[in-house]
Amino acid sequence: MYIEEAKNFVGQEVEVKGWLYNSRSSGKILFMIIRDGTGLMQVVASKSDVSEEVFNNAKKLPQESSLTMRGIIHEEKRAPGGYEIIVNDLNILQQTENYPISPKEHGVGFLMDNRHLWLRSKRQWAILRIRSGIEKSLRDFFDSKSFTLVDAPILTPNACEGSTTLFETDYFGTPAFLSQSGQLYMEAACMALGKVYCFGPTFRAEKSKTRRHLMEFWMLEPEVAYITFEENLKLQEDMVTYVVKYILANYRNEFEIIERDVKPLQKIDTPFPRLHYRDAIGLLRKKGKDIHFGDDFGADDETLLAEEFERPVFVHHFPASIKAFYMQPDPGDPETVLAADLLAPEGYGEIIGGSQRINDYDLLLKRMKDNKLSVDDYKWYLDLRRYGSVPHGGFGIGLERTLAWIAKLPHVRETIPFPRLLEKIYP
Ligand code: 4AD
Ligand code: MG
Predict the structure, then answer these.
(1) Which amino acid residue places its CA nearest to atom 22 of ligand 1?
(2) Which atom of ligand 1 is nearest to the CA of 412?
């Protein structure tokens, strides 16, 4: 039996296989908390029910020892999860010695060096479960709208999001780069399959040591042929609302473990407010910031903007000069592009970046030359504007930043099982 199934086994004898999380004894009774990956459960061993040898061995057992046991499941309101097992047989697989992570507080550096063990803690367990739920609900959302999942390559010959943050590697004598984004490939795929998305790891050699930056992060990137800018924003707000509602409905226990106040999440619903970049600049200036048209937002600017709203807010129509080469200028205001960032509430900043893509061959070529990109490397990308070019657009949602917001975590390092941070790749 797995611990999460305990409610189906009340009164029955079962076998549980797991690890010791915690224990305390009161002379003749030993209370252990066991974890098996699906949850925590109280295990009661009483001197009268098991052999003296078993009782004495179990009593000295250190945290994280592995063990299996047999016993009867009982309802017990006071136990974590509401059930306990009264044990009649217990088998120790390995008695752990000197497990480095004790229930006392540890520094972050120490925990990060022991990330492979830290994952076993209740808090990390809860966070990784929510991460898995976000991934599932994102995929469910797009699958239910008959998008096709198309996997983008990781090894790529060219940049998508600027050449300054590329991880370079050697591909049989020619330079290749770890993908910054699957977008360009999704643009090709949406011309074949209409509505597509990719979901995979992406890489940015960003020399940033902030609570929002990872060198390796996961991004889901939809791309849709014939979509309008307005339809693109609608897709994003429907998606985020769907995910938040799904997580609220299915991860109550995990939210309790990490002590996330879910009230702000309960307010998330469509439509999301929209803020024109020019108005955002005005708002920031009113709040005392010395910022002008053409400046990009820093993390604190994003927080100042987002705190005006209870829902995520779209900032749209950024200046072309601070955005990617492929973004479509607004025909009525060509200094700006049809692009939007979605800023999450509670100080989490940008979780989505999206745009309409340039579908005109000559304009795209000009923008590539302006950005000093080597046109030869992008011949295939330009081909998409030669053979049945159509308006299209999409976006990328960063999984870790979305999880950091939903779980209200102080830093993205806890959002991914093995974070790759600035100059840190162990374990
Ligand atoms: O805004 P970005 O750079 O957009 C793109 O890559 C587009 N090609 C997406 C598209 O239109 N298909 O990145 C999108 C999102 C950000 O909003 C953020 O959530 C996340 O990816 N992100 C990062 N997350 C963690 N660490 C980093 N260094 C990140 N860089 C971007
Ligand atoms: Mg962005």
Answers:
(1) 398
(2) 25
Average pLDDT estimate for 56-76: 95
- What number is the average pLDDT over the span 181-197? 98
Average pLDDT along the chain: 96
- State yes or no: pLDDT of 390 exceeds 80: yes
This prediction's pTM = 0.97
List the domain boundaries for the chain. Answer: 3-94, 115-414
Amino acid at 410: P
Q: What are phi and psi of 264, to 5 degrees?
A: -60, -35
Q: Looking at domain 115-414, which CATH architecture does it have?
A: 2-Layer Sandwich (3.30)
Which of 217, 338, 412 is the best mutation target for the ligand 1 pocket, counting ligand atoms within 8 Å of the beta carbon and taking the most? 217
The band of 49, judged by pLDDT with boundaries at 50, 70 and 90, is confident
Assign a CATH topology to domain 3-94: OB fold (Dihydrolipoamide Acetyltransferase, E2P) (2.40.50)
Distance (Å) from CA 397 to ligand 1 centroid: 6
Ligand 1 pocket list (CB less than 6 A): 160-161, 181, 183, 204, 206, 213-214, 217, 219, 221, 350-354, 394-396, 398, 400-401, 412
